[in-house]
Amino acid sequence: MDLEGATAAAAQLLSALGLDMDSDHRRDTPARMARALTEMLRAPSFEPTTFDNAGGYDELVVVDRIPFFSLCEHHVLPFIGEATIAYAPKDRIVGLSKLAWVVQLYARRLQTQEAMTQQIADWLVEQLDPKGVGVRLRAEHLCMSLRGARAIGAVTDTTTNRGVLADDPARREEWQRRLSS
Ligand SMILES: [Zn+2]
After folding, report:
1. 4, 12, 74, 114: which is the annotated catalytic residue?
2. Residue 15 contacts by C-beta under 8 Å, 6 or more apart in sequence?
3. How far is the CA of 97 from the centre of ligand 1 (A)?
4. Which residue of 5, 18, 116, 142 is 20 to 30 Å from 50, comparing CA positions?
5. What is the C-alpha separation between 179 and 181, in angstroms, rounded?
């Protein structure tokens, strides 16, 4: 990322918007804006540690209420919410914190909620080759609540189901039940 270029562009944007940036508080605002955006758009690096499913764990692993925010690729405004991730293991299980990290991995970029939901599921399928995966994201999009329709508090709910969480009626039903509890 070009921080200097982003700072200059932020200064230009603010001035094009007719804002007077010549005060003690505002002088460094373009640089702060640029730093804040680069921080929000920089993907974290982490080791996707997986382990042998030595005990043969055969039930769903569900991690709920993983907080995230991302930036919508249409308005570059935040959407803020929670993720629920479930998987049915086969031979490998994943360190639980990695499920929070993978949400961060796909959140810190320009996104749509729909794509992010699928990317998280794809990552799990690729890393673990599990029997099934389910991902649900619920988020408030500030581009919808602070402008346009101004639907403050409206929540967008997206899910994707793979493997047994899509195809096996019992597993699918269990996952749906977990989502509504
Ligand atoms: Zn948007």
Report:
1. 74
2. 21
3. 29
4. 116
5. 6
Residues in the chain: 181
Question: ∠ CA 180-164-173 to the nearest 5 degrees?
Answer: 30
In terms of Cα–Cα distance, which of 157, 119, 151 is closest to 136? 157
Structure tokens at 167: 């195809």
Same-domain status, 27 and 115: no
| CATH number where 57 lies | 3.30.1130.10
Residues placed in the known binding site for Zn(2+): 72, 75, 143
Asked whether 122 and 163 are in contact (CB, 8 A), the reply is no
**19 and 80 inside one domain:** no
25 noted as active-site residue:
no
Name the residue among 93, 86, 84, 83 with its Cα closest to residue 60: 86
- Same domain for 113 and 28, yes or no, is no
Determine which one of 72, 111, 140, 174 is catalytic.
72
Q: Residue-wise pLDDT tens for the chain (181 aa)?
A: 999 999 999 999 999 999 999 999 999 999 999 999 999 999 999 998 999 999 999 999 999 999 999 999 999 999 999 999 999 999 999 999 999 999 999 999 999 999 999 999 999 999 999 999 999 999 999 999 999 999 999 999 999 999 999 999 999 999 999 988 7
